[in-house]
Every structure is written in structure tokens, then in C-alpha cells.
Amino acid sequence: MTSNPFYLDCDTGIDDALALAYLLASPQADLRGIGAVSGNVSAAVGARNTLDLLELAGHAHIPVALGAHDPLAGSFGGGAPWVHGSNGIGEVELAESSVSLAPETAAEMLVRLAHEHPGTLRVLAIGPLTNIAEALRLEPSLPQLVAEITIMGGAALAPGNLTPVAEANIANDPEAAALVLSAGWNVTLVPLDVTMTNVLEENHRQELLASSGAVPRALGEMLGYYFRFYEGIFGRACSAMHDPLAAALAVGAVSAAVAPVVHVGVDTTSGPSRGQTVCDLRGLYMDYPEQPGARCRVVLSLDGDFAPHLVETLLAFSSESPTAAITAGAAVA
Ligand code: RIB
Ligand code: CA
Q1: How confident is the model at residue 327, as a pLDDT?
Q2: Atom 6 (ligand 1): residue with closest C-alpha?
């Protein structure tokens, strides 16, 4: 099986933690570096969570770089503690890694990795796109160096989650998203249309909690917090799977059923639709005829059921030492 070099950009975050663990457990992905950006939590807290998760997973050698604290325009809004907890990982406390941050910014790391792996580096962006936009400014030929970029973000036909029409990753930095989506590379956009319709249920969470591995157990604990937020949306204990689904599509372990390649714009005005992804889906009634110049593949539905695959992959960590430390699981009732 081919293993491709990956750069992950994230705002760790409960579902980011799931995506990170999924990538680490996936033979198709060779994770070479991770950048943190403000989103669910500040970039600094996201970086701390990432280092601690890597330590828990036995992958402390993967470098983590601090990225942008503020979006391109304006300033960081304080994150989403009501979704991810005050520490971003559902109030679960992980043993602190002693590894330091990389001596480069996240944007610099991405540019360096793109030069080290020209034509083969895959980028997975599961937070606001500030670091990716900064990397494009540092290296305008980044789209030619990178094989492909997969972005969890946007809402094509589905409602938004931060505003009635805007999804959080795009809404938290619309200027960066506009820049990244118009940069002339092949983008796979994984919007709420598909991440809200493929959910993780309580029986899946129980499977993770029953694992002998520290990583699946920690994820199961974090999901307790996440499920409580999503109970207010779905009416039962379950959760969306935004970031791990984007990771699975990026590594090619799951495939899309409907994913037209269309023009996508981002609303950067200050009106009520700021942060909306405007996807040209007018081809819906003719099986999406080709749109000349379009480079954004918008995933609208999946082939098959994602949750069992995600759980099975995460349980691959169960061979680890069960003594690796989760020191508290305070958020789980
Ligand atoms: O809208 C969902 C996205 O916003 C996910 O990436 C979640 O982690 C947050 O960053
Ligand atoms: Ca995220």
C-alpha cells in the first residue's frame, strides 16, 4: 500500500483529535508535520493538545508548529468551549508532553515540506485556513508543489453551523478561505452536507471506551462532551464526524458518491452571509456537467457507512500500553 507524505493543519478540538488519531493509524498516511491554528481553541492551546495526543499515541517525533493566532482580518474570537470544552478536548486531561514546538511557524513548515516532497505532499486542513493562506503568501508556487489539498469546511446546500449559512472553519477566517479556494490547486472540500449526515452513535463511543488502548479510551471520553453538544442538534446522543471524515477522504480510505467539481466562492462581505461558501451546484439536474476552470471537488455524499470504518481504524491503537495516562475524564458524566 502506498503511503503518502501529509501535512495536517488543525485547531485541536475533539474531532481534530479523532482525525489526528485516524491519520496516525492509517497506513496510507505518513504524517510529516502538523500546524496549529486558532479555531476551536487558540493556536497555542491547539498545539499543546496536539503535542499531548502525539505523546499518548507514541508519535512524539512528529513535529508540531505554532500557527496563526488571529485570522487575516480581525482577531481570534475565543473558540468554541460550548462544543469542545474549555481545553478543547472535552475537559479530558492528558499527560503533558515534554516535546517543544518546532522552530518554525506552521506556514513555514508547510512550505518546507512542500519543497521536500514536491508533487507528493498531501495537505489536510481541518481548521480555519489562516496558516494555509500565509503559506501561499510565503510561497506562491505552493499549488504546483502540493499534490492535493483536502479541506473540512463550508456548507454547500446544508445550513451553516456558526451562522445560518456559514460553517465555522470558513466563517472564522473568510479572507483566508477565499484566498485558498482561488489559489489554482485541486481542492477537495468536505462540507457540512456530508459531515452532518454521517454520525457517530453511542454504541461506537462505547466501543472506544471499552478498548484496552489509551488513545481510543481518551477519544471515547472526549466524545462524551461532544455528544452532549450534538444532542441539542440531533435529539440523541451522537455526533457529527467533520474532521475524521475529511481525513478518511484525504487518505482515500472512503470514497465519495456525489462530488461535483464546481466553482466555489466565499462571501467576505460584512453582511449576514459572511463566510458562506457559494458553490455553483446549478448542474444538479443534469448530473453536474463539467464547469470549465473549476477545481473544487465538493463532497456531497459518501459511498457506504463511515462510522464502523472510523471505529475499526481507531481501535488499531488498542495494542498500546494501557498505562499511558489520561489523568482525568471530568467532563464525562
Ligand atoms: O464546522 C466544523 C469544523 O469546525 C471542524 O473542523 C471543527 O473541529 C471546527 O474546527
Ligand atoms: Ca477542526
Answers
A1: 40
A2: 126
